[in-house]
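Lecture 7 notes: from sequence to structure.
We start with the chain below.
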Amino acid sequence: MTVADLLPPGISGIHVLPADHHDGPWDSMIVPPGTKERLLGTAVLVLRHGRALRSLSGPPHGLVVLSGPPGTGKTTLCQGLAQAAAAAVAARGTTTFVELDPHAFPGEMLGESQRAVRRLFTETLPELAARRPHTVVLVDEVEALAVRRSAASFETNPVDVHRATDAVLAGLDLLRDACPHLLLLATTNLTGAVDEAFLSRADLVLELDLPDTDVLARIVASSLAELATLWPGLRPLAEDTPLHAKLATACAGFDGRRMRKTVLAAVAQRPELAADPERLTADDLLAAVDAAVDVAVDVAAIPAVTA
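Predicted structure tokens for the same chain:
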């Protein structure tokens, strides 16, 4: 029996925060100014004052939605936010961090998805939330759980799709009343695929765009600085601001993950360089960028496959 077999249905992970091994993502994420502040402010407000805010005529639902293309760091940012928020409210107790798997609710039988989702929101999450003073729940690809009903295909059992989404909405309302100390973080690559009523319940919907060249330059600098902690001889490259800007300009359109991988790929270009990364030069970085850009062009040229 695996650990996954012991978890409640629909749950892929349960953690207690703050925890040392969860440090890192929040500080390493490079996003536009104000992004982290808005996210952390919303999280702390819900986790610390959720119960008091129930008296408002329009209390928060404790729902934050991050939307944007793949590679913009939505999931990593949410994981980092959970740790940062848990640290911010740690004086009042620990936080339960729950990761959901939205694909664990198949709709092969009419009504099955609805029953599974209802059970998640009315039983599983409240039981987990009762364990500690604060709870943060992460659901990636929330469009698989809260399908936009107005665009549901009649070829994929739309009745069950509607019922499952209805169950999600009812579940959010229930959690707001029963678990005001619970924060739900949702990510999606396609905001247009998420039900409008789900989005309307969000306290914050944040669109994450691909990084511009200024942000890419900061990512290059951060990646090289991290390498320099392992190999101090790389410190001059980590401090070469004009080089960072040049690399970022050449990689315009890259997402943050790809930019970091390109920097790392520079070290792996030749066996002797991989054996001694301190031999890395600006020319090696430029060559790695050229190779990455060439691959991007080749991939873009592949014709789309249509049915």
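Points to note: The first strand starts at residue 11 and ends at 17. The beta strands are 11-17, 63-67, 95-100, 134-139, 182-188, 204-207.
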